[in-house]
Amino acid sequence: MNRLRLYDFLPSGNGYKIRLLLTQLGVPFERTDINILAGESRTSEFLDKSPNGKIPVLEIEPNRYLAESNAILIHLAEGTEFLPYDRFLRAQVFQWLFFEQYSHEPFIATSRFWISILKKEKEYQEELKSKQEKGYAALQVMEDHLRSHSFFVGERYTIADIALFAYTHVADEGGFELGEFPSIRAWLERVKSQPRYISIKDTLEFINQN
After folding, report:
1. Most CB atoms closer than 10 Å: which of 54, 105, 115, 117?
2. DSSP string, 4-31
3. Do 6 and 12 meet the contact criterion of CB atoms below 8 Å apart?
4. Phi, psi of 64 (to 5 degrees)
């Protein structure tokens, strides 16, 4: 079996989703860093792998690539405990994956990128106001759901939780305060208690062990 290769940027929550799932599956992988700040995701070589010019990209076998973080999660989770077999529960997982990419990531992740990675909070001050409003709206949707659920689908840990956890657990780096979201904070701790959990900053240690 070919060893998986992940084209990744360590600060990225989208890349972290894949690192976390691979680690929890116990699947060894190799990693190639793509410095998006230096334009490395816009080279012709990388665009051949990911026409949209974004990370992460997973090389499943030589010259066979899969892009889009949540599509990669689905591919890796197929046939495992992280993706339910039941059709309705699977559809609910997909529902939350779509929510994450459309209603959550564009606001919480982008704010984090501007503030903590680019260090341009003042430059994006006006845009951040809009991001904050919509980001908090997404967090409220999560909070409302988690008031009566331990996890997002089927009362079990799935890739829906992984996808939403990635940027929520570092939401403070985008200027979001979670003090008013006790159910989210309790859920974050449940995710962190899962077997083989790694934080977004633990990846290098895992890679060095494999």
Report:
1. 105
2. EEEEE-TT-HHHHHHHHHHHHHT--EEE
3. no
4. -125, 110
Q: What angle do CA 135, 116, 110 make, to 5 degrees?
A: 35
pLDDT of res. 3: 87
- What's the pLDDT tens digit per position in 84-97? 999 999 999 999 99
pLDDT value of residue 6: 97
CB atoms within 10 A of CB 132: 16
Q: Can you read off the two tokens belonging to residue 65? A: 């690539």
Taking the C-alpha atoms of residue 191 and residue 151, their distance in angstroms, rounded to an integer, is 9
CA-to-CA distance for 204 and 202, rounded, in angstroms?
6
* Number of other CB atoms surrounding residue 167 within 10 Å: 29
**Residues 8/72, Cβ–Cβ less than 8 Å:** no
Backbone angles phi, psi at 21, to 5 degrees: -65, -45
Distance CA 172, CA 148 (A): 24
DSSP secondary structure letters along 130-185: HHHHHHHHHHHHHHHHHTS-SSSBTTB--HHHHHHHHHHTTGGGGT---TT-HHHH
